[in-house]
Amino acid sequence: MPAKEHPVFVAPNDPDIPIWRYMDFTKFVSMLENKGLYFSRSDKLGDPFEGSFSRGNEKLRSVVYNDQIPPEILNNLCNLYQEMITCTFVNCWHMNNYESAAMWRLYSKTNEAIAVKSTYRQLNQLLDDECFIGMVQYIDYESTWLPEGNLLYPYVHKRLSFSHEQELRAVIQKQPMKEKKLEFSESFYRRYLEIS
Q1: Is 114 inside a domain boundary?
Q2: pTM above 0.85, yes or no
């Protein structure tokens, strides 16, 4: 069963575009032994902006929401997004017709490294329906409004300085609904959030 479709996740125009995953040989062996892909917890990816909204959002919220949402609700919403960073798991691929010397340098720590080559179509078909897959969009985090209203938006947007990665992402998000009580009413969710 393929990955779930979701409006937040944009597929490449060409489903047969080559995608590459560069890794050390030990990670490749682990992938074979476990018969699966490794999904890193998003707060362990090394980017302090991972899973966050842009500074543009901070500046523009009062204008976009026309001061209709009370500040305490916005604070609770921001806290929820912050909590979701540890509940979101990511598997990253590089989209390119050719191998990338830059990706080799970035993602292989030793001379014993490999690149796994596939396509968007193949990866999409292999992932199960708890997973979403799509291209990362690169934005200016200082001024651009990052869409809000879905807990997945921050995971398909990155800063412009990462645009060389041409990243395709598979994302799994496990919402901690059973472990923690969220302090938002049902009507708040219907009005302001699309819970996937």
Answers
A1: yes
A2: no
Cα angle: 165, vertex 170, 171; to 5 degrees = 115
Closest CA to 118 of 6, 22, 34, 26: 22
Residue 183 has pLDDT above 50, yes or no: no
> Would you give the DSSP letter of residue 48?
T
Determine the length of the chain.
196
| Domain total of the chain | 1
| Region at 168 (left for phi over 0; alpha for psi -120 to 50; beta for the rest) | beta
- pLDDT value of residue 181: 52
Alpha carbons 182 and 190: distance in angstroms, whole number: 14
Say if 44 falls within a structural domain. yes
Q: Is residue 80, in this structure, part of any structural domain at all?
A: yes
